[in-house]
Automatic annotation (TrEMBL):
Pfam family, any one: Ala_racemase_N
HAMAP family reported in the protein's UniProt record: PLP_homeostasis
Organism of derivation: Bacillus glycinifermentans
Any GO molecular function: pyridoxal phosphate binding
Protein name, as recorded: Pyridoxal phosphate homeostasis protein
Length: 231
């Protein structure tokens, strides 16, 4: 399917989920996750009206950033970020979705020439394979970051477990929203924390119902040219 038709279908489903939840569709931005596809396919997404692109590897990000710079997408780094990769990507991303430890914050603070918009990644599913910090660690972590003038905590990010059990998924997203509201109540100068990055191809409608402001959609929007499963 061409990206344009996929996007129309996804946008319809977002609109319906917003209606069910009494939200405005304008509150939800779609990040096209291009990690499985070529720069040409990523450009198709931009031509279809997508503004936000997401990559989870430094190599993929830098390659597409260079080739697509005239199209001016907003770049999101959505994957686990190794501390030693920060230097390479920091000037090429607008958002980092995977801030999950103090050593990474230290490196961002050191390498960034200006304030960087970050999501704190939270493990809401208690699966050991998932990245992100435990819920209990989030508030103390955010408080520590008040000394980091190059970091702005714009929101929280999570990945739900891969399951058909809708109640389990919904519970993860709801927990993230409640935690987001707690962080916001801190009223900390560099933690407006108004955003929720949650929802992927298989669960974005639930995420939107639970308050997502950024959904990260790869395979059902741009497809998967690697031929393999989702990583
Ligand atoms: C790959 C990836 C996505 C998109 O996954 P799809 O299921 O293909 O939509 C979203 N978020 C993160 C962190 C990813 O790594």
């Amino acid at each position: 399917m061409d990206v344009k038709s996929n996007l129309r279908h996804i946008q319809d489903r977002i609109d319906e989920a917003c209606k069910r939840a009494g939200r405005s569709p304008g509150e939800v931005s779609i990040i096209a996750v291009t990690k499985y596809v070529s720069p040409e396919r990523a450009r198709e997404a931009l031509d279809a009206g997508i503004k936000h692109l997401g990559e989870n590897r430094d190599s993929g990000l830098l390659h597409k950033h260079e080739l697509l710079k005239d199209d001016g997408p907003v770049w999101h780094f959505i994957g686990t970020l190794q501390t030693r990769k920060v230097k390479a990507i920091i000037d090429h991303v607008s958002y980092i979705h995977s801030l999950d430890r103090l050593s990474l914050a230290d490196e961002i603070q050191k390498r960034a020439g200006k304030q960087v918009d970050c999501f704190v990644q939270v493990n809401t599913s208690l699966e050991t394979s998932k990245h992100g910090m435990a819920k209990e660690e989030v508030l103390p972590f955010v408080k520590k970051l008040s000394a980091y003038e190059n970091i702005r905590i714009v929101g929280l990010m999570t990945m739900a477990p891969f399951t058909d059990d809708e109640a389990v998924i919904r519970n993860c997203f709801r927990q993230l929203r409640e935690l987001r509201d707690e962080v916001r109540k801190l009223d900390q100068w560099n933690a407006p924390c108004s955003e929720l990055s949650m929802g992927m191809s298989n669960d974005f409608t639930i995420a939107v119902e639970e308050g997502a402001t950024f959904v990260r959609i790869g395979s059902s929007l741009v497809g998967n040219e690697t031929g393999g499963g989702q990583s």
